[in-house]
Amino acid sequence: MPIHQKAVCLLSGGLDSSTCLALARSQGYRCYALSFDYGQRHKFELEAAARIAAHFGAERHIVAKIGLDAFGGSALTGDIAVPKGRAAEEMSEGIPITYVPARNTIFLSFAMAWAEVLESSDIFIGVNALDYSGYPDCRPEFLEAFARMANLATKAGVEGRTHVCIQAPLLRMTKAQIVQTASELGVPFALTHSCYDPAPDGAPCGQCDACLLRRKGFEEAGIEDR
Q1: Residue 142 belongs to some domain of the structure
Q2: Residue 2: pLDDT above 70?
Q3: Is 1 inside any structural domain?
């Protein structure tokens, strides 16, 4: 067990990233949480990320500001309607308009930079290749390629002081398995936020892909979503 070993944990405040942080803590890592104000439609997820980071005793929580809304091209960063009420078959076809161009590549690059400063080799990301809405930057091939690049791109990697490893413990889990794991780790579901298009008071819409996938996971796990 990596007692006192440092890890950078990407934290959006959603169910998956919160579970990923909880897993890293349960494995003995000293966690440094990294969130992004990237021009997304709302900031409720950042409030959730702060709550989760505090709950699990992150060594530090940084919110990096980057303006992906300058480019648009996504329902999460531009003036494009968020899809609602889609059937599971629809969500499994193609890449949805909620995909944010290059988002995980950019997020992991920031994490890579912070990990090098911390002299850490481990970066945790809560991506999922099963119930993942078809995002190309959630695939194992992408994570493997990024890790190879990271070890070529950093001074610490070239000098052999660190060897970047992208930890994606939820990668091959179903949403129900993620919910079950989160429950076992004591993730406070009420502190998390998953909705793409919440009401002004932060209440989830219940109909976007993220809400529907979350509901499906809780129902299949037989656990109440508080």
Answers
A1: yes
A2: no
A3: no
